[in-house]
Amino acid sequence: MESVKVIECPRDAMQGWKTHIPTNAKIAYLKSLLRVGFDTLDCGSFVSPKAIPQMADTAAVIEAIGPFKASTKLSVIVANSRGARTACDFDAIDVLGYPFSISENFQMRNTGKSIEQSFGVLESILELASQSKKDLTVYLSMAFGNPYGDPWHPDIVSDWVYRLQKMGVQRISLSDTIGQAQTETIKELFGSLIPSFTEIIFGAHFHTTPQSAMEKINAAYAKKCRRFDGAIRGIGGCPMAQDHLVGNMPTETLINFFNQKKCHHGLQLLHFESAYNKALQLFQ
Q1: pLDDT band at residue 241, thresholds of 50, 70 and 90?
Q2: How far apart are CA 41 and CA 34, in angstroms?
Q3: What are the structural domains, with CATH classification, of the chain?
Q4: Is the dihedral of CA 190, 248, 14, 256 positive or negative?
Q5: 266 CB contacts (<8 Å, ≥6 apart)?
Q6: What's the pLDDT tens digit per position in 18-49?
Q7: In the structure, what pLDDT confidence band is assigned to residue 240 with cuts at 50, 70 and 90?
Q8: pLDDT-derived band of residue 101, with 50, 70 and 90 as boundaries?
Q9: pTM listed for this prediction
Q10: Is 46 left (phi over 0), alpha (psi -120 to 50) or beta?
Q11: Which helix (H) or strand (E) is 236 found in, with range?
């Protein structure tokens, strides 16, 4: 039986939500998700509260949910060394996530830095993570195409993966940032990168319309990707997608796919149903 890892991303769902979500409501929702048994819970970010005010209470959230995490790893997004140092002070945090784009335009929009500047920041974050015995996931955004006119080709993706590997990065999540990845591109990238970079664990962070969700999962799975990000009901996604139907990959779609394939995902489905119902209440 094939084993897969499902990463739930409530941070991605909550950060762009139009109305303020109270801290106690976040904590209750995240506790319900911890009971499901996800491999990793992407639960907050240490970035500027001016940039993402919804995540300003991440420290309080981590302190509250840390004792309940059991086997699930807690992950947070950091965008600079200061955020990484703050995250490393929390014993409950297991994984730092860093958004790194191969699009110069998108990297400037997302972090205010060029690609080369961001590469230098990543070096310092990797060192901090290593010193604190934290794992690091690099989210390689615009991995499946570029709408901004920057050069894009599978070889460019491969070249960046090579540079990241040489730096010491061991986990890369290929990100379909604006939800436009085509199945053939997904197959081509995972089909070439996974056998070429055997020391790296590759994941898929898809943004998608409901209609194309299953085919994207299938394309990556067919090429041996076994690590997938999702968010209940597909809430969230990149605001630059310019299509209100594009959101995160719905976790329930991932679960349906893996159940059909008879994969071992280790999720407690009754607890997932309870968390799903909490999501209905939280994201109205």
Answers
A1: very low
A2: 8
A3: 5-282 (3.20.20.70)
A4: negative
A5: 3, 37, 39
A6: 999 999 999 999 999 999 999 999 999 999 99
A7: very low
A8: confident
A9: 0.94
A10: beta
A11: none
Which residues contact residue 166 at a Cβ distance below 8 angstroms, ignoring those fewer than 6 apart?
A: none
Residue corresponding to tokens 């290929």:
174
Question: Which alpha helices (DSSP H) does the chain contain, by range?
Answer: 10-14, 23-34, 58-65, 81-88, 104-111, 115-131, 154-167, 183-196, 213-222, 251-260, 269-282
The maximal CA–CA distance of the chain, rounded, in angstroms, is 46
Residue 150 has what pLDDT?
81
Written as six digits, the tokens of 101 are: 């784009």
What amino acid is encoded at 277 in this protein? N
Q: Which two tokens stand for residue 33?
A: 């998700």
In the block, residue with structure tokens 């790194």: 100
Q: What is the DSSP letter of 56?
A: T
